[in-house]
Amino acid sequence: MATDVLNADSVIKELSNIVELDYDAIAAYRAAIDRIDDTGYTAKLEEFVKDHERHVRELSEVIRREGGTPPDSGDAKKMLTKGQVVIADIAGDKAILNAMKMNEQQTVSKYESATKEAFPEHVQTLLDKGLEDERRHKAWIERTLEAA
């Protein structure tokens, strides 16, 4: 972990990247929810959407407090993450969950990298909680795929 706490510009830049990724995850989950057949799965995926929406709200507030303007949508990755789900629709629920697993692996990786940065303590707390959520999402998807 770095010893110097990140300055406001670095905090804004790093958190903006995470907010965009969370927006991408929201789009991918919504695409999955629209296509998945198992209603038990959709209920869980709806729960995960709410987690990502909370991440966007909380991190966007930090960006504003640091003097920045938070993103209001994802970036180019959205086409890729949502596209994986749309393509997987042809092969059914298991393929959709596999696409979501790949998306969550990217999100977990981004949050893990961020938690290694020297963010101010209040930001670190939000990132740790976000990482916990992302790991929980990924673990559920993996367990569900193993049982399918």
Automatic annotation (TrEMBL):
Pfam families: DUF2383. It comes from the Bacteria. Residues 11-116 form the DUF2383 domain. SUPFAM superfamilies: Ferritin-like. This is DUF892 family protein. It comes from Marinobacter nanhaiticus D15-8W.
